[in-house]
Design goal:
alpha/beta; 23 strands; disordered N terminus; disordered C terminus
């Protein structure tokens, strides 16, 4: 362990004014606790602040604490800074001047506080934040929260309650090396980490051993499992080769198919070449044959032309023969005609005489004009009647169309109203009445079962003309009434209650009262002046039963309607006895107490209506329905009248048609007689003309003409015969040439057929070769596809790698042998049985945990060794220094305590590596017969604890590195002897050159105490009775001018 070293302390240097850096040289208070204003200038060493209880000594301590950044909780008094403002004042301030690093440097810190618990900070007159103040305080190592430096009156008892551990922490902060607290905290945190690491190492070791033992028991089974896995892996490897063997077989088949395809293509090329050689001469012969056929066609054309000409000449010859025979026939006919003409002439005369006689005998009767006129007038009359009826029908049809249009309008209006009802029902459903549609439908469907009229829901029966009135009405009437059904008969009420119970809608039975009459609304002059114009019971329309229920249930006859003017004069409304008032903006209600007649008012804003937003008048609906029924009756009667009128029109039309037919028959008969007369006249005229034609003689030269024509026709006939002879001679020669060419063409045709036969045979062979090539190509494609499928399947199972190819060579080379080997290997693997199938997984999982734990254990052990090394290094620096510091404190404490009492010592309580339990033990003994006991409230009295505390603080005087120390009334409870000894030690300690500034507050001092120049006495004179005396001592400088020699320091 390293040797102890002296604590590193900031070198204390005093100027010629005896102040050190960080000393308080001036305190100013304004409206702080008991002081209106206070200015205090403490001395550089021991400051004795004396004054009666309640005079404000502790106020000075509070000012120092709060003025240097301390919190109110440190003082053990009030918890908020506002409580330190003098009573009756709103704000105050604390000003503390600290000595800087030299005489010329002064730091003025001011804290302004107010009753709102707000603080403002100033440093040398400049506004700053609390962070800047804390930096100044830390710069001079001022520790307001350390009880060894700052011990206010209300926390003296806390010092005695400090445990050894806490006392060590406070002592480390107050004296010694500034690194001691951080080193101590570092050791504590590192020792905690070491504890955790040791626990972790022990836990990991136990778990690791347990896992290793478990895995050791499974190694035999794991070996068998791995043997089985090896066999299965071997089988799997052989299974990987199986598809590749199939691939090799398919590859051989594919190569064979390609070879067959190649041979077939060569044969096809040879067949095609032979076919081309055979087809070439065929085309040449076909050319020759075409030439012969062209010659034949030409000759055949000439023959056809010659034949046509011959036929024309023969036809002409025959025609002339016919004409000659016809001429001879005409000559014979002329002879016969003359004979028959005489006979026909006589016959025509007889026919003419008969026709004239018939015409003379035919007489026409006079037409019945009167009858026709009578029928025409009757027809006209019937048509006029029918037209009148048609006009009446059109009028009735027009009226019927008009009524139907009106009825359609009423039906549309009714639908609109029903839609408005649906909107209101929907609004009710949205407001919480989920089954209102079902309840309404049930009432509509079962109205026949009810003895009286049933209304409802009430919302459908109410119609409000004004939206503003709808807002008032909906806001005034309870929501349950809008969804209620109203009956006027108890039986109807019971029926609805039974059947509408599941729909959760109220049923209200209204009993009409004949004796109850409600006064109509008559606004008074006062109401008019206030803008009251109506009452809620008259702003809406509804059936009387519904209206009575609304008025009775909601008091509508007591709710009045005002205007914006009423809002401005609302305070005058109560004088009219109105307790409920609605205006466009507000709803006013006044309630009078039954016991004290006190009137309370409430005002609510008017909400917009949600339920009554769609108005539909129930009376209007009933009116529209009755009008629809009336129109249906009118339309029905009109249609019936139209049907009767149509029957009458049809009857008149039938009568007119019958008369029309009768008139037409008469007219037809007259027209028939006239037609007969005209026909007879035409017959007579025709026979006269025929007689004239027969009487006319034919031309005498007709026979001579016929003979001349016959001679000419015979000459032409001879000429035709000569032409036919010449044409027949030419035709015989052409026919001979045609025959020769035809024979030559037939020979060429036979030759072509023979050659084509050979070509077709070769073509069949080429086609067979082509089909064979196609078959081979399909076979090769099929083999290629199968090869690709097998290859993909094989690659999906295993991709050939050099290692796998090497392993495949050691395996059987045929599918049968390979499958047998796979079967044998699988059977051998399956023969290895286990009770636990997951044993390998458990073993490997546990092995992974073992490896992880081993790594973690190694890291934890490494961290543990590192932490232990760090602790040893830090302990070697901290503990010797601390031991030396405690030893010095003990030397001073023992020496001082020996002068005052019997014995006392300060020791360090060590606990090996448990640095959080290290502490400072103060042991004291006030009786010769007693033993040294640890300072506590259980063993020592209050005075004894005070003596021990002040002596411990005095023991720290020479070791502390803080600029000042404050102790408030530590001498209370001491006996005079100990108090005198304690004071002498304080004075002696204050006289040392390195002693910090000290404030000792006490209400009194013993007489005949020994003082030195290191002592400054600050007397607090505060209160209403010492105003004159305080003026004399208004300045703290008066005290500094008084010095009492050591030989005459009696007071």
């Amino acid at each position: 362990m390293a040797e102890g070293r002296d604590p590193k302390r900031r070198k204390i240097s005093r100027d010629d004014d005896d102040y050190m850096p960080g000393n308080i040289i001036k305190i100013e208070l304004c409206n702080f606790m008991t002081f209106n204003k206070l200015t205090c200038k403490p001395g550089p060493r021991l400051n004795l602040v004396i004054g009666p209880n309640g005079s404000g000594k502790s106020s000075l301590v509070c000012a120092i604490a709060l003025g240097l950044g301390g919190e109110p909780q440190l003082l053990g008094r009030a918890t908020s800074v506002g409580a330190y403002v003098k009573r009756g004042e709103e704000s105050g301030h604390i000003s503390i001047c600290l000595r800087g690093e030299n005489k010329e440097e002064t730091l003025s810190i001011m804290r302004k506080i107010n009753t709102s618990n707000k603080s403002e900070w100033q440093l040398n007159g400049r506004s700053v934040g609390k962070k800047d103040i804390n930096e100044v305080v830390q710069r001079f190592n001022i520790q307001i929260g350390n009880l060894t430096q700052f011990l206010p009156q209300d926390r003296v008892c806390e010092f005695a309650k400090l445990s050894p551990i806490q006392l060590l922490e406070e002592t480390e902060k107050a004296v010694g090396d500034p690194q001691l607290p951080s080193q101590h905290h570092g050791l504590i945190s590192k020792s905690e980490e070491v504890k955790k690491l040791k626990l972790a190492v022990e836990s990991h070791n136990g778990t690791l051993n347990q896992l290793r033992d478990l895995n050791a028991g499974l190694e035999k089974d794991v070996k068998r499992v791995r043997q089985q896995e090896k066999l299965l892996e071997k089988a799997e490897a052989m299974k990987k080769k199986l598809p590749w063997l199939k691939y090799d077989i398919k590859k051989v088949e594919y190569m064979a198919a390609l070879e067959q395809e190649k041979v077939a293509k060569l044969k096809l090329e040879e067949a095609a070449k032979v076919l081309c050689e055979l087809k070439a001469p065929i085309e040449k012969v076909k050319g020759e044959k075409a030439k012969q056929e062209a010659k034949c066609r030409k000759i055949n054309g000439l023959l056809d032309s010659s034949t046509k000409k011959r036929m024309q000449l023969l036809e002409k010859f025959d025609s002339m023969g016919v004409q000659i025979r016809g001429k001879y026939a005409e000559m014979e006919e002329l002879k016969h005609q003359e004979e028959s003409r005489q006979q026909r002439l006589a016959k025509a005369k007889e026919d003419l005489a008969a026709a004239e006689e018939e015409l003379a005998n035919h007489c026409t009767s006079e037409p019945p004009k009167k009858k026709i006129e009578q029928l025409s007038s009757q027809i006209l009359e019937l048509e006029e009647i029918a037209n009148d009826m048609r006009n009446q029908r059109r009028e009735k049809e027009k009226h019927l169309s008009h009524h139907k249009m009106i009825m359609k309008q009423h039906m549309d209006r009714l639908k609109e109203m029903e839609n408005a009802n649906n909107k209101r029902l929907t609004a009710l459903r949205n407001s919480g009445s989920d089954k209102i549609f079902e309840a309404y439908r049930w009432v509509q469907e079962n109205r026949g079962m009810m003895k009286s009229e049933v209304y409802g829901p009430v919302l459908l029966e109410v119609n409000v003309a004004s939206q503003m009135h709808a807002n008032y009405l909906e806001g005034h009437v309870p929501n349950y009434i809008w969804k209620s059904f109203i009956t006027q008969n108890p039986e109807d009420r019971d029926l609805l209650v039974r059947n509408l119970k599941s729909y959760e809608v109220p049923v209200i039975n209204h009993v009409a009262s004949e004796t109850h009459h409600r006064d109509p609304f008559r606004p008074t002059e006062q109401m008019r002046r206030l803008g009251i114009s109506s009452r809620l019971d008259i702003v809406f329309e509804a059936p009387s039963a519904v209206k009575e229920v609304l008025i009775g249930q909601s008091g509508l006859d007591r709710a009045y309607v005002g205007s914006k003017e009423t809002d401005e004069k609302s305070e005058q409304v109560l004088g009219l006895g109105i307790m409920d008032l609605w205006t466009p903006e507000n709803h006013y209600r006044w309630n009078k107490s039954r016991y004290s007649n006190h009137v309370s008012a409430s005002v609510e804003s008017v909400d917009r209506s949600c339920l009554l937003s769609s108005n539909s008048d129930s009376n209007e609906i009933e009116g529209v329905k009755s009008r629809v029924v009336e129109l249906e009756g009118t339309i029905s009667a009109t249609e019936e009248s139209l049907r009767a009128l149509q029957a009458s029109v049809r009857k008149k039309e039938d009568e007119a048609a019958a008369l029309q037919r009768e008139r037409e028959e008469i007219v037809n008969q007259m027209q028939s007689e006239k037609r007969k007369q005209r026909e007879l006249e035409q017959l007579v005229n025709q026979r006269k003309m025929k007689l004239k034609m027969l009487e006319k003689k034919d031309d005498q030269d007709a026979e001579k003409k016929l003979k001349h024509q016959i001679t000419e026709l015979k000459a032409q006939q001879f000429k035709c015969t000569l032409e036919i002879k010449n044409m027949l001679t030419e035709a015989v020669a052409s026919r001979r040439s045609f025959a020769e060419n035809s024979l030559s063409s037939i020979e060429l045709e036979l030759k072509i057929r023979e050659m084509e036969s050979h070509a077709k045979q070769q073509e069949k062979l080429a086609l067979q070769a082509s089909l064979h090539v196609e078959t081979c190509e399909n076979a090769s494609k099929k083999c290629k596809h199968e090869l690709e499928v097998v290859q993909r399947e094989a690659e999906s199972i295993a991709v050939i790698t050099p290692e796998l190819a090497k392993a495949f060579k050691k395996m059987p080379q045929t599918i049968e042998d390979l499958e047998a080997a796979i079967q044998d290997t699988t059977s051998e693997a399956n023969a290895i049985l286990f009770l636990n199938q997951n044993i390998l997984e458990e073993y490997e999982s546990r092995q992974r945990k073992i490896e992880e734990l081993a790594q973690r254990l190694e890291m934890d052990e490494k961290d543990l060794n590192t932490k232990l090394d760090e602790i040893n290094t830090l302990k070697g620096s901290w503990l010797p220094t601390l031991r030396k510091l405690v030893s010095r404190i003990n030397d001073t404490f023992s020496r001082n305590f020996k002068e005052m009492a019997v014995a006392g010592e300060v020791s360090l309580g060590e606990h090996e590596t448990d640095f959080s339990q290290y502490g400072i033990l103060i042991k004291v003994k006030f009786r010769q017969t007693g033993q040294l006991q640890v300072l506590s409230a259980h063993h020592q009295s209050g005075g004894e604890r005070s003596v021990s505390t002040i002596l411990y603080l005095v023991s720290l005087q020479d070791l502390t590195n803080c600029p000042f120390r404050v102790v408030d009334e530590i001498n209370q409870g001491m006996d005079p002897i100990n108090e005198r000894k304690m004071f002498q030690q304080l004075v002696r300690a204050a006289s040392q050159p390195s002693t910090p500034q000290c404030f000792l507050l006490t209400p009194k001092l013993l007489p005949n105490l020994e003082y030195s120049e290191a002592c400054s006495i600050l007397t607090v004179m505060n209160g209403p009775w010492i105003e004159q005396q305080s003026k004399v001592w208004a300045s703290g400088e008066n005290w500094s001018s008084i010095r009492i020699p050591a030989t005459e320091n009696q007071c």
